[in-house]
Amino acid sequence: xxxxxxxxxxxxxxxxxxxxxxxxxxxxxxxxxxxxxxxxxxxxxxxxxxxxxxxxxxxxxxxxxxxxxxxxxxxxxxxxxxxxxxxxxxxxxxxxxxxxxxxxxxxxxxxxxxxxxxxxxxxxxxxxxxxxxxxxxxxxxxxxxxxxxxxxxxxxxxxxxxxxxxxxxxxxxxxxxxxxxxxxxxxxxxxxxxxxxxxxxxxxxxxxxxxxxxxxxxxxxxxxxxx
Length: 227
What we know:
single chain, mainly alpha, two-stranded parallel ribbon, 2 strands, 2% strand, globular
């Protein structure tokens, strides 16, 4: 069994300022996100949002079975953060801050350039467990605040951190990469996002990559390539 990096049994709120527990404060970044999510979802009316659409959205068929990957994203995000929180504090910091960067950029876009998509089917072509769950998701997750897609941004951030982790096996890295790609695709197939939202997440992720890793990680690798 893998050994915990920090003995959290000794943690108390009064000790959060100590170096060994300072990273715990990063969990509070999620409170900022949820507050902004609530505000953007409830205070920006749909009629004031720009409709996001491209021709590919009309080509991609609705497929409720991609809900497996769309919902699996929640497990991917929480599971990866929890894993690094327990076993690799340095990478926990990197991943949480990486996600936080994408959160704040996306929220700024949602506030200053409100967006929505009108891709959801009015009537599901089939009735089954997956469409039932998707119907529930449609009720609490509105079709506004969509560009860029945070499903895509978070997934690619997780892939970036994990593929750089020399302690993870290649099969696990491959699984996370493939699963994350399917998560990105799922956003279009369950009609939660336009392809435009997926593409718009790419520069957001690039910004996160630059801020979190920058020259410290990439400069030596680029130097070896050109040497």
